[in-house]
TrEMBL record:
Its EC number is 2.7.13.3. It comes from Nocardioides aestuarii. InterPro entries: HATPase_C_sf, HATPase_dom, His_kinase_dom, Sensor_HK_TwoCompSys, Sig_transdc_His_kin-like_C, Sig_transdc_His_kin_sub3_dim/P. This is Oxygen sensor histidine kinase NreB. CDD domains: HATPase_UhpB-NarQ-NarX-like. PANTHER family: NITRATE/NITRITE SENSOR PROTEIN NARX-RELATED, NITRATE_NITRITE SENSOR PROTEIN NARQ. Keywords: 4Fe-4S, ATP-binding, Cytoplasm, Iron, Iron-sulfur, Kinase, Membrane, Metal-binding, Nucleotide-binding, Phosphoprotein, Transferase, Transmembrane, Transmembrane helix, Two-component regulatory system.
Length: 689
């Protein structure tokens, strides 16, 4: 047995493994060098040089290098993986060189000036790397079309500050905080300090503004992305939310020193992990649930902290210095247990509902929908109730509910304004699709976690039961109306036939017989003629009676039985269609089942002769436990998909549904048409033998 390998496949894997090993080795060396430099210097020396600990500055770069190794191992030569290598390497080198600055100043070693130049001037390129990550993730390519030009412009803007820091003079870059004995200028340009300052401020605006532009392009990419790509982008969204929350927390609480370092490492860890998972295994976790949990937790924490600050300020303003520390502590504990604990829980629940509705409380959502459906009556009222319940539960701006009616029509109810892009979920009852639910695609609230999807299934299942009950009630009512109308139409027809046809005919016969009796002796010929006319009129009246009886129930069923009546019907079609009849155990069927089976076979065979162009047909009637199975197949041309059901097909279905059964018409792949009717009946209901 031989196997083949794609050209370059093994070599590509080998190169990928080599890159991963090199990156791992580089991370170990960078971490070891940074730790050694930190151990070789003191805090006083680091303060004197203006540099921090090298290891804390190296860690973010190492995290990005590890992420790059994972990405390139799973997706070789991916542009985002290569970019992570570049950004991580620069970040790690920046950290090591920041440690070298302190050590070099202390021991007057070479390369100290280069280290300061790299950290102070070249390190700003990390901002450009962040912008490039946003522009290229997750495909490794810029957006096509006009967005590509915008992406190139954003990328160019991100380089403004790094380029300006490379060419600006030391007196502008460092002002009063720069080292007096280190020259970091590569070259100088004859510009005034005012011009240099204006250029530097403009470069800062362009570079920091490019981050906003990159975020806008990420949002545009999300709108145009496929479902799988949206999942990858949501991992990046979660990382962005975490970074924003860390920045806001740092500004609000004025953290610094070690806390700032920890926050930076957490932010970079989040970014590296999200990029790696998004590119390597985007389906690893429920990212939608993670985003929702992060947002709600942050919102609840913000509200609770704000209330904490307000209550403490109010307590301090009311009590002042009246209580000692022990009394204040006791009072705060009592208030926290008795009043503030329930208040915080209530606030947290309120914030969650404000942001994401009732999706976190499945029982509450299902019971609220049940109450709404119970308060409504008809299907026209239940659909808006379902749309409103889903909108309230998931806090979405648009919901549309569509239900297929028994006649193939469509009922719909809409809540809110329909957005440009939507997603649909089928509403099924016993594996039968009865409608669908339409929700928006874009927006944080439109993201459905697996738990949210489970809740949506519960809501849809309960709604399907109510909708199915409403449809059945509508069908029952329509069936009753059809039965009443049909019964009265039959009564009116029979009355008309009896009153206008059979009654006058029999009255005329009686008059003719009276006239014949009077003429028997005086005019025998006239009497015989009157009797002959009376006999003709009686025959016509008998034909009318037979027609009335046939319309009520085919006489062949009473005269011959179901099987023989069907065979007789098949014989009548013999010149145009060869029909084979198979029947088993048909004795003792209820009269309604016999009529439905006979009418179904007759209608199906008539359709075959008129429309199918078939040469042969087969009729099978098999009695099973509590039901009669009727099947008519032919070898004709079948029914096209775009052909609407005619009166004949609808009448067959209605006859089966009136007995609680069903009738299906299908066209097998091999050709022809199959009509299968299932007619149930109660075994104890028997026709008199």
């Amino acid at each position: 047995m031989t196997s083949t390998t794609a050209p370059g496949g093994t070599a590509g894997r080998d190169r990928t493994g080599t890159v991963a090993v090199l990156l791992a080795g580089a991370t170990v060396l960078a971490l070891a060098a940074s730790v050694a430099l930190d151990l070789a210097t003191t805090a006083t020396q680091r303060d004197a040089s203006g540099a921090g600990t090298a290891s804390s500055s190296v860690v973010p770069g190492l995290l990005l290098l590890l992420a790059a190794a994972a990405v390139l191992t799973a997706v070789p030569r991916h542009a985002v993986g290569r970019l992570l290598v570049a950004v991580g390497a620069v970040w790690a080198l920046d950290g090591v060189l920041s440690g070298w600055i302190t050590y070099g100043y202390t021991h007057d070693l070479p390369l100290t000036g280069f280290a300061f130049w790299f950290v102070a001037r070249f390190g700003a390129v990390l901002l450009s790397g962040l912008v490039a990550l946003l522009l290229l993730y997750p495909t490794g390519r810029l957006l096509p079309g006009r967005a590509r030009s915008a992406g190139l412009a954003v990328a160019a803007s991100s380089l403004a500050l790094p380029v300006m820091l490379l060419v600006a003079p030391d007196r502008i870059v460092f002002r009063e905080n720069g080292p007096a004995d280190v020259d970091t200028e590569l070259f100088t340009l004859p510009l005034s300090d005012a011009v240099w300052t204006a250029l530097l401020v403009t470069a800062q605006v362009l570079t920091f503004g490019s981050i906003v532009g990159a975020v806008a392009l990420v949002w545009l990419r999300h709108r145009q992305a496929s479902s799988s790509e949206r999942t990858q982008l949501r991992w990046l969204l979660w990382a962005g939310i975490m970074c924003v929350l860390l920045v806001v927390a740092g500004v609000v609480f004025s953290i610094g020193g070690l806390a700032t370092t920890i926050a930076l490492n957490v932010a970079v860890t989040t970014l590296a992990a999200s990029i790696t998972v998004g590119l390597v295994r985007p389906g690893l976790g429920d990212v939608d649930a993670l985003v929702a949990w992060t947002l709600t937790t942050a919102a609840v924490a913000a509200v609770v902290v704000a209330v904490d600050v307000a209550l403490l300020a109010a307590l301090d303003g009311v009590l002042g210095d009246r209580l000692d520390q022990r009394e204040v502590t006791f009072l705060v504990l009592v208030l926290a247990v008795v009043v503030y604990g329930p208040l915080r829980a209530w606030l947290g629940q309120g914030v969650r509902r404000l942001l994401f509705g009732r999706r976190s409380d499945r029982y509450d959502a299902v019971s609220a929908l049940a109450a709404r459906l119970e308060a409504t009556g008809s299907l026209d009222e239940q659909l808006p109730a379902l749309a409103g319940a889903v909108a309230d539960t998931f806090k979405v701006s648009f919901v549309r509910v569509e239900v297929v009616t028994p006649d193939g029509g469509l009922l719909a109810a809409t809540h809110g304004r329909e957005p440009a892009e939507v997603q649909s979920f089928d509403i099924a009852y016993h594996d039968t699709r009865v409608g669908r639910l339409v929700l928006p695609v874009l927006g944080v609230r439109a993201m459905l976690s697996r738990r949210d999807q489970g809740l949506l299934v519960d809501l849809v299942r309960q709604a399907a039961i109510a909708i199915r009950a409403g449809l059945l009630a509508t069908e029952v009512q329509e069936s009753r109306e059809r039965l009443v109308l049909g019964r009265e139409e039959d009564r009116r027809r029979i009355r008309r036939d009896l009153h206008d046809g059979l009654g006058p005919a029999l009255g005329g016969v009686a008059l003719r017989l009276d006239a014949a009796g009077n003429a028997v002796e005086s005019d025998p010929d006239r009497a015989r003629e009157l009797v002959r006319l009376a006999r003709t009129e009686v025959s016509d009246a008998l034909d009318d009676v037979r027609r009335l009886v046939h319309d009520l129930r085919p006489p062949a069923l009473d005269d011959l039985g179901l099987e023989a009546a069907v065979r007789q019907q098949a014989e009548r079609l013999r010149p145009e269609l060869a029909v084979t009849v198979h029947a088993e155990a048909l004795a003792g069927l209820p009269a309604a089942v016999e009529v439905a089976a006979y009418r179904t076979v007759a209608e199906a065979l008539t359709n075959v002769v008129k429309h199918a162009g078939a040469a042969t047909a087969t009729v099978s009637m098999l009695r099973t436990s509590g039901a009669l199975s009727v099947e008519v197949t032919d070898d004709g041309r079948g029914i096209a998909d775009d052909v609407a059901a005619g009166v004949g097909l609808l009448s067959m279905r209605e006859r089966a549904e009136e007995l609680g059964g069903q009738c299906q018409v299908s066209c097998p792949p091999g050709g022809g048409t199959t009509v299968h009717a299932w007619l149930p009946f109660a075994e104890e209901t028997r026709r008199d033998q």
